[in-house]
Amino acid sequence: MVIDGLVKHFGDLEVLRGVSLRVATGQVVCVIGPSGSGKSTMLRCVNRLEQPTAGRIFVGDVEITAISDERELDRHRGRVGMVFQQFNLFPHMTALHNVMTGPRHVLRLEEAVARERAQDLLGRVGLAEKADEYPDRLSGGQQQRVAIARALAMEPEVMLFDEVTSALDPELVGEVLAVMRDLADGGMTMVVVTHEMDFARDVSDRVVFMDDGRVVEEGAPSDVLDGPREERTRQFLNRDR
Amino acid sequence: MEVDFSKFNWSRLMDRFFDGEVIGRWIDEVPRALWQTIQLATIAEIFGIALGLFIALGAIHRRRTVRVIFRSWVELWRGTPLLVQLLFVHFSFPLVGIIFTPFVSGAFVLSLNSAAYVAEIFRAGIQSLERGQIEAARSLGMSYRRMLRVVVLPQAFRRVVPPLTNELVALVKDSSLVAVIGVVELLGVARLAFGAEYNSSMYPVVALLFLSITLPLTFLARALERRLSRRGARSWVDDDRQLLVSLSSVSHGHSGVPG
After folding, report:
1. Inter-chain residue contact B141 with A169, CB threshold 8 Å
2. B143–A137 CB contact, under 8 Å
3. pLDDT by residue (tens digit) across B69-127?
Protein backbone atom coordinates (compact mmCIF):
# COMPACT_ATOMS: atom_id res chain seq x y z
CA MET A 1 0.00 0.00 0.00
CA VAL A 2 1.41 3.36 -1.00
CA ILE A 3 0.25 6.83 -0.03
CA ASP A 4 1.87 9.63 -1.98
CA GLY A 5 1.47 13.31 -1.12
CA LEU A 6 -2.02 12.94 0.37
CA VAL A 7 -3.77 16.24 1.02
CA LYS A 8 -7.20 16.62 2.58
CA HIS A 9 -9.07 19.84 3.26
CA PHE A 10 -12.33 20.16 5.16
CA GLY A 11 -13.44 23.55 3.90
CA ASP A 12 -10.69 25.91 5.03
CA LEU A 13 -9.24 23.38 7.42
CA GLU A 14 -6.14 21.57 6.18
CA VAL A 15 -6.18 18.20 7.89
CA LEU A 16 -3.55 16.46 5.78
CA ARG A 17 -0.75 18.51 4.24
CA GLY A 18 1.02 16.01 2.02
CA VAL A 19 1.38 12.66 3.73
CA SER A 20 3.41 9.87 2.16
CA LEU A 21 3.58 6.36 3.51
CA ARG A 22 4.61 2.97 2.17
CA VAL A 23 3.44 -0.28 3.71
CA ALA A 24 4.85 -3.49 2.25
CA THR A 25 2.79 -6.66 2.11
CA GLY A 26 2.79 -8.38 5.47
CA GLN A 27 4.05 -5.32 7.30
CA VAL A 28 2.48 -3.83 10.38
CA VAL A 29 2.73 -0.06 10.65
CA CYS A 30 1.56 1.80 13.71
CA VAL A 31 0.61 5.45 13.37
CA ILE A 32 0.86 7.57 16.50
CA GLY A 33 0.38 11.24 17.19
CA PRO A 34 -1.79 13.74 19.03
CA SER A 35 -5.49 13.89 18.28
CA GLY A 36 -6.29 16.13 15.36
CA SER A 37 -3.04 15.24 13.65
CA GLY A 38 -4.87 13.62 10.74
CA LYS A 39 -4.19 9.95 11.51
CA SER A 40 -7.81 8.83 11.25
CA THR A 41 -8.49 10.99 8.22
CA MET A 42 -5.57 9.33 6.45
CA LEU A 43 -7.02 5.87 7.11
CA ARG A 44 -10.45 6.99 5.99
CA CYS A 45 -9.03 8.27 2.73
CA VAL A 46 -7.54 4.85 2.00
CA ASN A 47 -10.97 3.30 1.61
CA ARG A 48 -12.46 6.54 0.35
CA LEU A 49 -14.83 7.13 3.25
CA GLU A 50 -13.31 10.59 2.81
CA GLN A 51 -12.46 11.94 -0.62
CA PRO A 52 -8.82 13.06 -0.83
CA THR A 53 -8.27 16.64 -1.98
CA ALA A 54 -4.97 15.76 -3.67
CA GLY A 55 -2.37 13.03 -3.74
CA ARG A 56 -2.45 9.42 -4.81
CA ILE A 57 -3.12 6.18 -2.96
CA PHE A 58 -2.36 2.70 -4.25
CA VAL A 59 -3.48 -0.60 -2.79
CA GLY A 60 -1.69 -3.39 -4.61
CA ASP A 61 -1.64 -2.34 -8.26
CA VAL A 62 -4.82 -0.31 -8.07
CA GLU A 63 -4.69 3.44 -7.80
CA ILE A 64 -7.73 3.93 -5.65
CA THR A 65 -7.64 7.71 -5.89
CA ALA A 66 -8.30 7.30 -9.63
CA ILE A 67 -11.48 5.26 -9.22
CA SER A 68 -14.57 7.16 -10.26
CA ASP A 69 -16.98 4.31 -10.92
CA GLU A 70 -19.21 3.50 -7.94
CA ARG A 71 -19.06 -0.26 -8.45
CA GLU A 72 -15.31 -0.19 -8.79
CA LEU A 73 -15.12 1.79 -5.56
CA ASP A 74 -17.30 -0.73 -3.73
CA ARG A 75 -15.07 -3.53 -4.95
CA HIS A 76 -12.02 -1.67 -3.68
CA ARG A 77 -13.59 -1.09 -0.26
CA GLY A 78 -14.24 -4.80 -0.02
CA ARG A 79 -10.51 -5.47 -0.37
CA VAL A 80 -9.64 -3.13 2.49
CA GLY A 81 -10.82 -4.13 5.95
CA MET A 82 -11.62 -1.39 8.42
CA VAL A 83 -12.23 -1.51 12.15
CA PHE A 84 -13.62 1.55 13.91
CA GLN A 85 -13.23 3.12 17.33
CA GLN A 86 -16.97 2.75 17.97
CA PHE A 87 -17.21 -0.89 16.71
CA ASN A 88 -20.24 -0.05 14.55
CA LEU A 89 -21.66 -3.54 14.67
CA PHE A 90 -25.10 -3.90 13.14
CA PRO A 91 -27.37 -4.01 16.22
CA HIS A 92 -30.19 -5.89 14.52
CA MET A 93 -28.01 -8.88 13.69
CA THR A 94 -26.40 -11.55 15.84
CA ALA A 95 -22.61 -11.71 16.07
CA LEU A 96 -22.63 -14.50 13.50
CA HIS A 97 -24.77 -12.58 11.05
CA ASN A 98 -22.64 -9.49 11.48
CA VAL A 99 -19.65 -11.50 10.34
CA MET A 100 -21.66 -13.16 7.56
CA THR A 101 -22.85 -9.84 6.11
CA GLY A 102 -19.84 -9.23 3.90
CA PRO A 103 -19.54 -12.76 2.51
CA ARG A 104 -23.30 -12.98 1.98
CA HIS A 105 -24.17 -9.59 0.58
CA VAL A 106 -20.95 -8.44 -1.04
CA LEU A 107 -19.09 -11.60 -2.06
CA ARG A 108 -22.42 -13.36 -2.70
CA LEU A 109 -21.24 -16.62 -1.16
CA GLU A 110 -23.72 -19.34 -0.43
CA GLU A 111 -25.40 -19.16 2.97
CA ALA A 112 -23.70 -22.33 4.22
CA VAL A 113 -20.24 -21.26 3.03
CA ALA A 114 -20.61 -17.81 4.57
CA ARG A 115 -21.83 -19.32 7.81
CA GLU A 116 -18.87 -21.66 8.03
CA ARG A 117 -16.41 -18.86 7.34
CA ALA A 118 -18.07 -16.67 9.97
CA GLN A 119 -18.01 -19.43 12.55
CA ASP A 120 -14.32 -20.04 11.88
CA LEU A 121 -13.53 -16.38 12.30
CA LEU A 122 -15.53 -16.03 15.50
CA GLY A 123 -13.54 -19.00 16.78
CA ARG A 124 -10.34 -17.26 15.81
CA VAL A 125 -11.23 -14.16 17.84
CA GLY A 126 -12.30 -16.40 20.73
CA LEU A 127 -16.04 -15.83 20.48
CA ALA A 128 -17.36 -19.07 19.00
CA GLU A 129 -19.83 -19.46 21.87
CA LYS A 130 -21.20 -15.92 21.40
CA ALA A 131 -22.25 -16.46 17.77
CA ASP A 132 -25.96 -16.12 18.47
CA GLU A 133 -25.78 -13.13 20.79
CA TYR A 134 -26.86 -9.68 19.67
CA PRO A 135 -24.28 -6.89 20.03
CA ASP A 136 -26.06 -5.25 22.96
CA ARG A 137 -25.44 -8.42 24.96
CA LEU A 138 -21.69 -8.28 24.35
CA SER A 139 -19.02 -6.29 26.18
CA GLY A 140 -17.12 -3.59 24.32
CA GLY A 141 -14.11 -5.86 23.91
CA GLN A 142 -16.24 -8.66 22.54
CA GLN A 143 -18.01 -6.30 20.16
CA GLN A 144 -14.71 -5.06 18.84
CA ARG A 145 -13.48 -8.61 18.29
CA VAL A 146 -16.65 -9.36 16.33
CA ALA A 147 -16.00 -6.21 14.30
CA ILE A 148 -12.51 -7.47 13.50
CA ALA A 149 -13.94 -10.82 12.44
CA ARG A 150 -16.51 -9.02 10.29
CA ALA A 151 -13.76 -7.14 8.45
CA LEU A 152 -11.64 -10.29 8.08
CA ALA A 153 -14.56 -12.17 6.56
CA MET A 154 -14.03 -10.21 3.36
CA GLU A 155 -10.48 -11.66 3.20
CA PRO A 156 -9.02 -8.17 2.76
CA GLU A 157 -5.52 -7.46 1.45
CA VAL A 158 -4.92 -4.88 4.16
CA MET A 159 -6.56 -4.12 7.49
CA LEU A 160 -6.99 -0.59 8.83
CA PHE A 161 -7.48 -0.10 12.57
CA ASP A 162 -8.74 3.30 13.67
CA GLU A 163 -8.09 3.73 17.40
CA VAL A 164 -9.91 0.49 18.01
CA THR A 165 -9.19 0.35 21.74
CA SER A 166 -9.84 3.99 22.59
CA ALA A 167 -13.52 3.49 23.46
CA LEU A 168 -12.87 0.45 25.64
CA ASP A 169 -12.66 0.13 29.38
CA PRO A 170 -9.00 -0.45 30.30
CA GLU A 171 -9.51 -4.06 31.34
CA LEU A 172 -10.97 -4.91 27.92
CA VAL A 173 -8.12 -3.48 25.84
CA GLY A 174 -5.90 -6.53 26.22
CA GLU A 175 -8.23 -9.03 24.59
CA VAL A 176 -8.58 -6.88 21.47
CA LEU A 177 -4.84 -6.25 21.20
CA ALA A 178 -4.25 -9.99 21.56
CA VAL A 179 -6.43 -10.65 18.53
CA MET A 180 -4.55 -8.01 16.55
CA ARG A 181 -1.22 -9.46 17.60
CA ASP A 182 -2.37 -12.84 16.33
CA LEU A 183 -3.34 -11.31 13.06
CA ALA A 184 0.04 -9.62 12.69
CA ASP A 185 1.80 -12.90 13.43
CA GLY A 186 -0.30 -14.49 10.70
CA GLY A 187 1.22 -12.09 8.15
CA MET A 188 -1.65 -9.67 7.67
CA THR A 189 -0.78 -6.25 6.28
CA MET A 190 -1.96 -3.76 8.88
CA VAL A 191 -2.07 -0.03 9.45
CA VAL A 192 -2.87 0.67 13.07
CA VAL A 193 -3.71 4.11 14.40
CA THR A 194 -3.25 3.75 18.12
CA HIS A 195 -2.29 5.24 21.44
CA GLU A 196 -1.05 1.88 22.73
CA MET A 197 2.72 2.42 22.78
CA ASP A 198 3.49 -1.06 24.08
CA PHE A 199 1.58 -2.60 21.21
CA ALA A 200 3.40 -0.36 18.75
CA ARG A 201 6.74 -1.36 20.22
CA ASP A 202 6.09 -5.10 20.34
CA VAL A 203 4.10 -5.75 17.21
CA SER A 204 4.85 -3.19 14.55
CA ASP A 205 7.58 -3.28 11.95
CA ARG A 206 7.54 0.48 11.72
CA VAL A 207 6.16 3.38 13.70
CA VAL A 208 5.02 6.61 12.10
CA PHE A 209 4.61 9.78 14.13
CA MET A 210 2.18 12.30 12.68
CA ASP A 211 1.50 15.83 13.79
CA ASP A 212 -0.46 18.66 12.23
CA GLY A 213 -1.23 16.81 9.03
CA ARG A 214 2.31 15.68 8.30
CA VAL A 215 4.53 12.68 8.92
CA VAL A 216 7.11 14.05 11.31
CA GLU A 217 9.17 10.96 11.83
CA GLU A 218 9.13 7.28 10.99
CA GLY A 219 11.34 4.29 11.56
CA ALA A 220 11.83 1.14 13.57
CA PRO A 221 9.72 1.10 16.75
CA SER A 222 12.72 1.24 19.06
CA ASP A 223 14.21 4.19 17.17
CA VAL A 224 11.06 6.29 17.10
CA LEU A 225 9.74 5.42 20.54
CA ASP A 226 12.98 5.27 22.51
CA GLY A 227 15.29 7.63 20.69
CA PRO A 228 13.25 10.03 18.60
CA ARG A 229 15.21 12.45 16.43
CA GLU A 230 12.54 15.11 16.27
CA GLU A 231 11.74 17.48 19.10
CA ARG A 232 8.00 17.21 18.54
CA THR A 233 8.07 13.44 18.73
CA ARG A 234 9.93 13.69 22.05
CA GLN A 235 7.39 16.15 23.40
CA PHE A 236 4.52 13.90 22.44
CA LEU A 237 6.07 10.78 23.92
CA ASN A 238 6.99 12.53 27.15
CA ARG A 239 3.54 13.98 27.59
CA ASP A 240 2.10 10.56 27.04
CA ARG A 241 4.24 9.02 29.73
CA MET B 1 -68.60 31.10 28.81
CA GLU B 2 -70.38 29.82 31.88
CA VAL B 3 -70.60 26.71 33.98
CA ASP B 4 -74.02 26.15 35.47
CA PHE B 5 -74.89 22.64 36.56
CA SER B 6 -78.47 23.65 37.41
CA LYS B 7 -79.06 23.44 33.65
CA PHE B 8 -78.16 19.75 33.68
CA ASN B 9 -80.91 18.05 31.71
CA TRP B 10 -80.56 14.27 31.61
CA SER B 11 -83.53 13.44 29.45
CA ARG B 12 -82.71 16.00 26.73
CA LEU B 13 -79.12 14.84 26.71
CA MET B 14 -80.29 11.28 26.18
CA ASP B 15 -82.83 12.31 23.54
CA ARG B 16 -80.37 14.27 21.48
CA PHE B 17 -77.29 12.12 21.69
CA PHE B 18 -78.40 8.62 22.66
CA ASP B 19 -81.88 8.18 21.14
CA GLY B 20 -82.41 4.46 20.59
CA GLU B 21 -85.21 5.01 18.08
CA VAL B 22 -83.10 7.24 15.83
CA ILE B 23 -80.24 4.77 16.04
CA GLY B 24 -82.66 1.99 15.18
CA ARG B 25 -83.83 3.78 12.04
CA TRP B 26 -80.27 4.32 10.73
CA ILE B 27 -78.39 1.30 11.97
CA ASP B 28 -79.00 -0.60 8.74
CA GLU B 29 -76.87 1.96 6.88
CA VAL B 30 -73.93 1.33 9.17
CA PRO B 31 -72.39 -1.93 7.85
CA ARG B 32 -72.03 -0.56 4.33
CA ALA B 33 -70.57 2.69 5.65
CA LEU B 34 -68.22 0.85 8.00
CA TRP B 35 -67.01 -1.21 5.06
CA GLN B 36 -66.39 1.99 3.06
CA THR B 37 -64.30 3.43 5.88
CA ILE B 38 -62.30 0.25 6.29
CA GLN B 39 -61.65 0.04 2.55
CA LEU B 40 -60.62 3.69 2.32
CA ALA B 41 -58.32 3.52 5.30
CA THR B 42 -56.73 0.25 4.21
CA ILE B 43 -56.05 1.43 0.67
CA ALA B 44 -54.67 4.75 1.91
CA GLU B 45 -52.44 3.04 4.49
CA ILE B 46 -50.98 0.56 2.04
CA PHE B 47 -50.31 3.15 -0.65
CA GLY B 48 -49.33 5.69 1.96
CA ILE B 49 -46.61 3.46 3.38
CA ALA B 50 -45.32 2.26 0.01
CA LEU B 51 -45.31 5.72 -1.53
CA GLY B 52 -44.03 7.25 1.70
CA LEU B 53 -40.99 4.98 1.71
CA PHE B 54 -40.29 5.83 -1.91
CA ILE B 55 -40.57 9.56 -1.20
CA ALA B 56 -38.37 9.25 1.90
CA LEU B 57 -35.61 7.66 -0.19
CA GLY B 58 -35.97 10.48 -2.70
CA ALA B 59 -35.76 13.03 0.10
CA ILE B 60 -32.34 11.71 1.19
CA HIS B 61 -31.03 11.16 -2.34
CA ARG B 62 -27.43 12.10 -3.00
CA ARG B 63 -28.43 14.46 -5.81
CA ARG B 64 -29.58 17.79 -4.50
CA THR B 65 -32.12 18.39 -7.25
CA VAL B 66 -33.80 15.06 -6.49
CA ARG B 67 -33.94 15.91 -2.81
CA VAL B 68 -35.44 19.32 -3.47
CA ILE B 69 -38.15 17.88 -5.71
CA PHE B 70 -39.17 15.19 -3.24
CA ARG B 71 -39.05 17.48 -0.24
CA SER B 72 -41.16 20.10 -2.01
CA TRP B 73 -43.68 17.39 -2.85
CA VAL B 74 -43.87 16.50 0.84
CA GLU B 75 -44.34 20.11 1.87
CA LEU B 76 -47.07 20.59 -0.72
CA TRP B 77 -49.17 17.72 0.64
CA ARG B 78 -48.34 18.25 4.27
CA GLY B 79 -48.76 22.00 4.30
CA THR B 80 -52.20 22.34 2.68
CA PRO B 81 -55.56 21.35 4.20
CA LEU B 82 -56.75 17.83 3.42
CA LEU B 83 -60.22 19.23 2.87
CA VAL B 84 -58.96 21.52 0.10
CA GLN B 85 -56.98 18.66 -1.45
CA LEU B 86 -60.12 16.53 -1.61
CA LEU B 87 -62.27 19.25 -3.13
CA PHE B 88 -59.58 20.28 -5.58
CA VAL B 89 -58.88 16.79 -6.91
CA HIS B 90 -62.48 15.72 -7.09
CA PHE B 91 -63.87 18.83 -8.73
CA SER B 92 -60.94 20.05 -10.84
CA PHE B 93 -59.79 16.75 -12.36
CA PRO B 94 -62.98 16.33 -14.42
CA LEU B 95 -62.14 19.65 -16.09
CA VAL B 96 -58.94 18.17 -17.47
CA GLY B 97 -60.78 15.04 -18.49
CA ILE B 98 -60.15 12.76 -15.49
CA ILE B 99 -63.34 11.63 -13.84
CA PHE B 100 -62.99 9.75 -10.58
CA THR B 101 -65.84 8.36 -8.53
CA PRO B 102 -65.99 10.01 -5.10
CA PHE B 103 -64.51 6.86 -3.58
CA VAL B 104 -61.53 6.86 -5.96
CA SER B 105 -60.91 10.57 -5.45
CA GLY B 106 -61.03 9.99 -1.71
CA ALA B 107 -58.66 7.03 -1.76
CA PHE B 108 -56.31 8.88 -4.12
CA VAL B 109 -56.04 12.01 -1.99
CA LEU B 110 -55.84 10.15 1.33
CA SER B 111 -53.00 7.99 -0.05
CA LEU B 112 -50.96 10.95 -1.26
CA ASN B 113 -51.66 12.95 1.87
CA SER B 114 -50.60 10.20 4.26
CA ALA B 115 -47.60 9.35 2.04
CA ALA B 116 -46.23 12.81 2.80
CA TYR B 117 -46.44 12.27 6.55
CA VAL B 118 -45.15 8.70 6.32
CA ALA B 119 -42.22 9.92 4.21
CA GLU B 120 -41.19 12.33 6.95
CA ILE B 121 -41.43 9.55 9.54
CA PHE B 122 -39.23 7.24 7.46
CA ARG B 123 -36.78 10.01 6.69
CA ALA B 124 -36.39 10.84 10.37
CA GLY B 125 -36.03 7.13 11.18
CA ILE B 126 -33.32 6.65 8.58
CA GLN B 127 -31.44 9.78 9.54
CA SER B 128 -31.52 8.86 13.22
CA LEU B 129 -29.10 6.00 12.52
CA GLU B 130 -25.52 6.56 13.63
CA ARG B 131 -23.17 7.55 10.83
CA GLY B 132 -20.94 4.66 11.80
CA GLN B 133 -23.55 2.18 10.61
CA ILE B 134 -23.32 3.56 7.10
CA GLU B 135 -19.54 3.71 7.18
CA ALA B 136 -19.29 0.14 8.42
CA ALA B 137 -21.58 -1.06 5.63
CA ARG B 138 -19.78 0.89 2.93
CA SER B 139 -16.36 -0.18 4.15
CA LEU B 140 -17.43 -3.81 3.68
CA GLY B 141 -17.96 -2.90 0.04
CA MET B 142 -21.74 -2.79 0.11
CA SER B 143 -23.41 -0.74 -2.59
CA TYR B 144 -25.72 2.08 -1.55
CA ARG B 145 -28.85 0.09 -2.38
CA ARG B 146 -27.67 -3.03 -0.60
CA MET B 147 -26.70 -1.02 2.44
CA LEU B 148 -30.21 0.44 2.52
CA ARG B 149 -31.77 -2.99 2.33
CA VAL B 150 -29.49 -4.90 4.67
CA VAL B 151 -28.40 -2.33 7.24
CA VAL B 152 -30.40 0.90 7.16
CA LEU B 153 -34.03 0.00 6.54
CA PRO B 154 -34.28 -2.94 8.97
CA GLN B 155 -33.08 -0.65 11.74
CA ALA B 156 -35.15 2.31 10.60
CA PHE B 157 -38.32 0.19 10.45
CA ARG B 158 -38.21 -0.74 14.10
CA ARG B 159 -37.56 2.84 15.08
CA VAL B 160 -40.56 4.16 13.15
CA VAL B 161 -43.21 1.74 14.42
CA PRO B 162 -44.49 4.08 17.17
CA PRO B 163 -44.71 7.28 15.09
CA LEU B 164 -46.06 5.31 12.15
CA THR B 165 -48.84 3.88 14.31
CA ASN B 166 -49.71 7.39 15.30
CA GLU B 167 -49.98 8.42 11.67
CA LEU B 168 -52.08 5.40 10.69
CA VAL B 169 -54.55 6.02 13.50
CA ALA B 170 -54.84 9.65 12.47
CA LEU B 171 -55.42 8.54 8.90
CA VAL B 172 -58.36 6.32 9.87
CA LYS B 173 -60.05 9.31 11.46
CA ASP B 174 -59.08 11.71 8.66
CA SER B 175 -60.71 9.39 6.18
CA SER B 176 -64.04 10.76 7.44
CA LEU B 177 -63.30 14.00 5.60
CA VAL B 178 -64.13 12.35 2.27
CA ALA B 179 -67.75 12.87 3.24
CA VAL B 180 -67.40 16.35 1.68
CA ILE B 181 -67.09 14.87 -1.79
CA GLY B 182 -70.03 12.59 -1.26
CA VAL B 183 -68.57 9.30 -0.09
CA VAL B 184 -70.99 7.83 2.43
CA GLU B 185 -68.63 6.34 4.96
CA LEU B 186 -69.18 6.23 8.73
CA LEU B 187 -69.27 9.94 9.40
CA GLY B 188 -71.37 10.46 6.29
CA VAL B 189 -74.13 8.27 7.73
CA ALA B 190 -74.13 10.28 10.95
CA ARG B 191 -74.35 13.52 8.99
CA LEU B 192 -77.21 12.20 6.87
CA ALA B 193 -79.00 11.07 9.99
CA PHE B 194 -78.51 14.47 11.58
CA GLY B 195 -79.80 16.26 8.51
CA ALA B 196 -82.91 14.13 8.32
CA GLU B 197 -83.77 13.92 12.02
CA TYR B 198 -82.09 16.98 13.53
CA ASN B 199 -80.74 14.53 16.10
CA SER B 200 -77.10 13.69 16.96
CA SER B 201 -77.53 10.15 18.20
CA MET B 202 -75.61 8.59 15.31
CA TYR B 203 -72.46 10.55 16.12
CA PRO B 204 -71.55 8.61 19.28
CA VAL B 205 -72.35 5.40 17.41
CA VAL B 206 -69.91 6.10 14.59
CA ALA B 207 -67.34 7.41 17.06
CA LEU B 208 -67.38 4.03 18.76
CA LEU B 209 -67.04 2.34 15.41
CA PHE B 210 -63.98 4.44 14.60
CA LEU B 211 -62.57 3.31 17.91
CA SER B 212 -63.30 -0.28 16.92
CA ILE B 213 -60.97 0.22 13.94
CA THR B 214 -58.21 2.20 15.62
CA LEU B 215 -57.91 0.11 18.78
CA PRO B 216 -57.03 -3.16 17.03
CA LEU B 217 -54.57 -1.19 14.93
CA THR B 218 -52.88 0.12 18.08
CA PHE B 219 -52.73 -3.33 19.67
CA LEU B 220 -51.26 -4.77 16.50
CA ALA B 221 -48.57 -2.08 16.49
CA ARG B 222 -47.75 -2.73 20.16
CA ALA B 223 -47.35 -6.42 19.48
CA LEU B 224 -45.09 -5.68 16.52
CA GLU B 225 -43.02 -3.30 18.61
CA ARG B 226 -42.54 -5.89 21.34
CA ARG B 227 -41.64 -8.57 18.84
CA LEU B 228 -39.03 -6.38 17.19
CA SER B 229 -37.41 -5.25 20.41
CA ARG B 230 -37.16 -8.80 21.69
CA ARG B 231 -34.97 -9.64 18.73
CA GLY B 232 -31.97 -7.78 20.11
CA ALA B 233 -31.25 -4.33 18.76
CA ARG B 234 -31.89 -1.06 20.45
CA SER B 235 -35.56 -0.44 21.05
CA TRP B 236 -37.07 2.84 22.09
CA VAL B 237 -37.26 1.53 25.61
CA ASP B 238 -33.50 1.02 25.74
CA ASP B 239 -32.93 4.45 24.27
CA ASP B 240 -35.14 6.03 26.91
CA ARG B 241 -33.26 4.26 29.62
CA GLN B 242 -29.94 5.49 28.26
CA LEU B 243 -31.37 8.98 28.03
CA LEU B 244 -32.44 8.83 31.68
CA VAL B 245 -29.02 7.64 32.71
CA SER B 246 -27.31 10.48 30.91
CA LEU B 247 -29.84 13.03 32.14
CA SER B 248 -29.70 12.06 35.76
CA SER B 249 -26.29 13.67 36.27
CA VAL B 250 -24.96 10.37 37.61
CA SER B 251 -21.28 10.78 37.03
CA HIS B 252 -20.23 7.19 36.37
CA GLY B 253 -19.62 7.10 32.64
CA HIS B 254 -22.07 4.65 31.12
CA SER B 255 -20.77 2.37 28.42
CA GLY B 256 -24.19 0.92 27.76
CA VAL B 257 -22.88 -2.62 27.75
CA PRO B 258 -22.70 -5.25 30.45
CA GLY B 259 -19.12 -5.52 31.67
Report:
1. no
2. no
3. 999 999 999 999 999 999 999 999 999 999 999 999 999 999 999 999 999 999 999 99
How far apart CA B26 and CA A238 sit, in angstroms, is: 89
Cβ atoms < 10 Å from Cβ of B9: 10
pLDDT tens profile B20-46: 999 999 999 999 999 999 999 999 999
Answer whether residue B168 shows pLDDT above 90: yes
- With beta carbons under 8 A apart, name residues in chain B contacting A92: 154-155, 158, 231-233
Q: Widest CA span of chain A, in angstroms? A: 55
How do strand A54-59 and strand A2-10 relate by DSSP bridges?
A: antiparallel
Across the interface, of A139, A147, A154, the residue whose CB is closest to B258 is A139
Full-model pTM: 0.83
Q: Which of A90, A92, A154 sits opposite B141 (nearest CB)?
A: A154
- The count of C-alpha atoms lying within 13 angstroms of the C-alpha of B232, restricted to the half-sphere facing its C-beta, is 19
Q: What CA–CA distance (Å, rounded) separates B208 from B231?
A: 35
- Region of poorest pLDDT, from B1-15, B85-99, B179-193, B240-254: B240-254
Test B142 with A135 for CB contact under 8 angstroms: no
Q: Tell me if ipTM is over 0.85.
A: yes
**Max Cα distance, chain B (Å):** 76
User: B202-230 and B186-197 helices cross at what angle (nearest 10)?
Assistant: 170
Q: Kindly write down the DSSP assignment for every residue of A1-32, as one continuous string.
A: -EEEEEEEEETTEEEEEEEEEE--TT-EEEEE
Asked if B146 lies within 8 A of A134 by C-beta distance, the reply is no
Gap from B81 CA to chain A (nearest CA, Å): 39
